[in-house]
Write a structure and sequence with these properties.
9 strands, seven-stranded mixed sheet, two-stranded antiparallel ribbon, globular, alpha+beta, about 160 residues, Glutaredoxin
Length: about 160
């Protein structure tokens, strides 16, 4: 599998959202996209990351930026997560892990000396033409939204 790099065209996909509708990356052409991959709905790190995006949401939408979160969780799990934390952005389900693998967000992880396969927290910034502008390969949840806003030269 080819690794993605800045200046590559972001691979298109078709995934199901909370509303059970299908969404493609291509339908967001003309807008900038924050595409973030996260391990699991309603877990401490993922909740913190989603809530900081929620709290900064107006800064993104005011600047023509769409936020899309993707995990292997199903739409019902996403719906509970969205409702519990009032998340205003799109969460998509990739239970077959095809998009996760395409974007290099599924792979070997290590915890307490054990090696296992899992979702790697990663974020892609995509421009209006669908090109990858920046990749955050190892996301630190604390301050992540602030870092992205700075990358887009947006002041809070």
């Amino acid at each position: 599998m080819k690794l993605l790099h800045p200046n590559d065209v972001a691979p298109n996909f078709c995934l199901t959202g909370v509303d059970e509708k299908e969404y493609t990356l291509e339908q967001f052409r003309g807008k900038r996209v924050v595409l973030y991959f996260y391990p699991k709905d309603d877990t401490p790190g993922c909740t913190k990351e989603a809530c900081t995006f929620r709290d900064d949401y107006k800064h993104y939408t005011d600047n023509n930026i769409v936020i899309i979160g993707i995990s292997a969780d199903n739409p019902k799990s996403h719906k509970r997560f969205v409702e519990k934390y009032d998340l205003p952005f799109l969460l998509l389900s990739d239970p077959e892990k095809k998009v996760l693998k395409t974007y290099g967000s599924w792979g070997e992880k290590k915890m307490y000396g054990k090696i296992y396969m899992g979702l790697i927290r990663k974020t892609f910034l995509i421009d209006e033409k669908g090109k990858i502008v920046k990749i955050y390969p190892k996301v630190r949840v604390a301050g992540h939204s602030d870092t992205i806003l700075k990358e887009f030269d947006i002041k809070k």
